[in-house]
Amino acid sequence: MGIRTGDQYIEALKSRKPEVWLNGKLVESIFDEPYFQQPILEIARLYDMQHDPAYQEDLTVICEETGERMAASFLPPRSYEDIMKRSKAFEVVARQTYGLMGRTPDFLNTVVTSLAQNSWFLSKYNKDWAANIESYYRHLRDNDLFLTHAIVNPQNDRSKTSHEQSDKFTHLGAVEERPEGLVVRGAKMLATLAALTDEVIIYSFPGFAPGDERYALAFAIPIDTKGLKIICREPVQDGTRSTFDHPLASRYEEMDALLIFEDVVVPWDKVFLYNNVEAANLLYPMTGIAEQPAHQSSVRGYIKLAFAVEVACKVADSIGVDQYLNVQRDLGELVQSVEVIRALLRTAEREYTMTERGEARLNPDALETIRGMMPEMYPRAVEVMQTIGAGGLLMMPTEADFLNPELRPSIDRHYGGREGVDAELRMKIFKLAWDLCGEAFGMRALQYERYYTGDPIRKRAIFYNKFKKQHNFDLVNSILAKENCLKEPQTN
Ligand SMILES: Cc1cc2c(cc1C)N(C[C@H](O)[C@H](O)[C@H](O)COP(=O)(O)OP(=O)(O)OC[C@H]1O[C@@H](n3cnc4c(N)ncnc43)[C@H](O)[C@@H]1O)c1[nH]c(=O)[nH]c(=O)c1N2
Ligand SMILES: O=C(O)Cc1ccc(O)cc1
């Protein structure tokens, strides 16, 4: 089939009935659920853009194997040109959602592409696993499917490994092998957009200990597979909030969910790894599964930070406070943070290396520095927005007030900004800012930047430990090796 249209995505959505729980109720029809409607349309628009002549060249490439168009995120990177082709596509997608939807289809396309491109690693353990991921990649690419993923165990008792939890199946693990497939039971988090996707892929961050064999798993299944329960978090919007009052929350809600597998049968040809702690722990370091998605998330994060910084600047300008030195200092800092991320991104792309098997892999240190800095830079942008907007963020009336002819003269008189900024523009800017820095939507967007790539504290510690192991401290060693040139003690 090649690239899908938005309608094809929606038709597929309508044809399924996954077990999705929202606000204590089983969702009857995903498409008709008001909470999901706008985000579905946002995703559909991304599929439509692949067919739009204005975007097609940026978003798609011709597949070498099929001769059909495919999303550029399925292109296995083998050169700098491939890297930049993908980078451009990630950016076009990110700009459509202002970087606020992190798990658009391109994200998991890169995960599956990197696994398939590095199937040699899986074949060291089991030839079937390698063949399975390769054919899954083709299935995903050729049907242009939308995936979610869940790679983290729920926070039950973090001081214990999976096999030490009080219930053997608190965490997702294998129950038994049957001729038709592997039976799995337990929970995994935090599947963003799960209800709106076609399929789910499961794998894990490293960290398995001996005894965790049953939890060392990787597989994919359709989202409506029998026994898969999807429990959504509390929504941040209800599908009826005005786009004037909540320009972002009303459009870009990415519903997160816990996945509970109740004796789900995974067909053997969809199992990519099983019962092997060593393979599960090496999956990240040995495949491009960290770098390829991190490329997408770095581009998207760059756009999101740039957007938040623009909003902060507009808030300051609209009320004339950016003439003050302290405000200029803070905004200057934010603009520089965007430049830092942009520079790191370009460094990661330019300083790619070729793996022995021909994958062009981005500089991992530059990528990891983005992943280390964003959890500080994005919350800082939000904080600056809060302090510059100050009390004004809390006094904005609603669209209903604005549209009421009795109130309108007062609104026009008292809600305007500096000269040239009328009440409507000022309200629009401040409502954008409030969605980012005050609303539950904005707090979720902030929490996403902190944690989407794992715990930033431990990730930074790992980064330092790797640095210490690999770095030879030439500079310091050279001065330590200089001859001792202490002056002789003076004698009288
Ligand atoms: C909005 C949003 C959206 C998503 C996701 C997160 C968020 C916030 N993620 C989940 C993400 O992968 C996950 O949140 C991070 O890996 C962090 O893990 P925990 O949240 O379990 O924190 P975790 O429980 O690991 O940490 C909690 C706190 O305890 C500390 N801590 C825990 N264990 C420790 C240890 N061993 N040593 C030292 N300190 C320790 C941490 O430093 C932290 O402060 C996700 N995932 C996914 O698979 N698919 C998805 O789509 C998404 N989407
Ligand atoms: O390690 C990365 O940054 C890539 C990645 C991040 C989060 C995730 O859920 C999957 C891959």
From TrEMBL:
This is 4-hydroxyphenylacetate 3-hydroxylase. Residues 5-273 form the HpaB/PvcC/4-BUDH N-terminal domain. The keyword Transcription does not apply. Residues 280-480 form the HpaB/PvcC/4-BUDH C-terminal domain. FAD binds at residues 149-151, 155-158, 192, 455-458. It comes from Lysinibacillus odysseyi 34hs-1 = NBRC 100172. One of its GO terms (molecular function) is oxidoreductase activity, acting on the CH-CH group of donors. Signal peptide: none annotated. InterPro entries: Acyl-CoA_Oxase/DH_mid-dom_sf, AcylCo_DH-like_C, AcylCoA_DH/oxidase_NM_dom_sf, HpaB/PvcC/4-BUDH, HpaB/PvcC/4-BUDH_C, HpaB/PvcC/4-BUDH_N. Pfam families: HpaB, HpaB_N. Keywords: FAD, Flavoprotein, Oxidoreductase.
